[in-house]
Amino acid sequence: MRIQFISLTGRQRFGALAALGALTVAAVAGDGIQVYRVAKEKPPELAQMKMPAGHPDMNAATATQAPLTWQTPAGWTAVKPGELRVASFSIKDEGGKQADVSVIPLSGMAGGDFANVNRWRSQVGLPAITAAELKKLASNVEVSGEPADLYEFSGTNPSSGDKTRILAAVQHRDRTAWFFKMTGDDAVVEKQKEAFIAFLKSAKFAAPPSAGELPPAHPPIDGSSMPPGHPDISGTSSAAESAVAKEGQPQWTVPAGWKEIPGGQFLVAKFLIAGDGGAQAAINVSTSVGDGGGLAANVNRWRGQLGLPPATEAELQKDATTLETSGGKATLVKLSGTDGRTGQPTKLIGAVLVRDGQAWFYKLMGDEKIVAAQSKAFTKFVKEVKY
Predict the structure, then answer these.
(1) For domain 2-205, which CATH number applies: 2.60.120.1690, 3.30.470.20, 2.120.10.30, 1.10.10.10?
(2) What is the dihedral of CA 181, 184, 188, 192, to 10 degrees?
(3) H helical segments located in 208-294
């Protein structure tokens, strides 16, 4: 058995997403418990700061944080996580048939369970379901002592023609959707179902320290613990956090009526537009290393959020238009469908820009009338962003 420690570092909140492919792994002997940790990279100012005599090591406190642990089932081989994954496993039977296991956290509703389930069904050649049918397909499982929904689909891989099965569990916690998914050869996945459920049950989320909370056994910090002449530190925490969050972020002008709201660790920024009768639309800005998985994968993810079937890259290129921006040529797409969470008619305008080895994603999605009215403002916003 082995214990693995996986950490992800980044300069800013949005840097964490861009660095997801650069996870580091170390292993020591143990009882098979896996640990996933997200730790912020220490700003240079903090690295050089001298703390008062007797002050505990700040690095040691950071290294002890471990929000997610799990027990790896026998026969599962841990592999280097790919983009967006915090854990990845490979399973192979005696005949060489395989299955893949992934653990992926996404902020917010991540497109909604309805859209994701229909995307999984399309991966095994099954037709889309209606929102009313969703709950009938879910069974109850446990993740970290809390309920989660488990979905199971069997069919034929449209690309290879092989019999394929998917097991996928979804749990929403702390404004993040956690996806635990096994996909692969039909017989392998079916045989591994019991182990997969045991893996889910073994997963444990540790409560992260609240903002501003000191590590256990940390002495209180007051004026007497700071060097002579040190300025008052009370009330400076939020300002410092704000400065770090904005460091290196592209410059843009926020259109009138857009309200910035917290977007979670996987978004650079998020804005909300309110309309009449509670209608609304949201703008998400995110980034990823390289091409972010490619245009087809990302646009099909957006299509899934609207209950639309996947399109081929040729079809996507036909419907896409080129948008000249201050950062280069971006690809613009416009989609209409049904919101997987609300069942309401929804429009989506998305832009993808790849520059300097990094992909930038801009998405306006929500009420049809609001999106239509905000189309010009959104396009202007994307065109004028300065990187």
Answers:
(1) 2.60.120.1690
(2) 0
(3) 237-246
The per-residue pLDDT for range 312-345, each reduced to its tens digit, is: 878 888 889 999 999 999 999 999 999 877 788 9
CA 304/CA 115 separation, integer angstroms? 5
Give residues with Cβ within 8 angstroms of 349, minimum separation 6: 332, 333, 334, 335, 363, 364, 365, 371, 375, 378, 379
Confidence (pTM): 0.46
Report domain 258-384's class.
Answer: alpha beta
Low-confidence ranges of the chain (pLDDT < 70): 1-66, 83, 107-111, 207-249, 264-265
Answer yes or no: same fold for 2-205 and 258-384: no
SS3 302: helix
Q: Give the separation between CA 192 and CA 91, rounded to whole angstroms.
A: 9
What would the pLDDT profile of 215-260 be if each residue is shown by its tens digit? Answer: 555 555 444 445 555 544 444 333 333 333 344 568 999 999 999 9
Q: DSSP letters of 151-194?
A: EEEEEE-TTT--EEEEEEEEEEETTEEEEEEEEEEHHHHHHTHH
CA atoms within 13 A on the CB side of 41: 14
String of DSSP letters for 118-160: HHHHHHTTPPP--GGGHHHH-EEEEETTEEEEEEEEEEE-TTT
All structural domains of the chain with their residue ranges: 2-205, 258-384
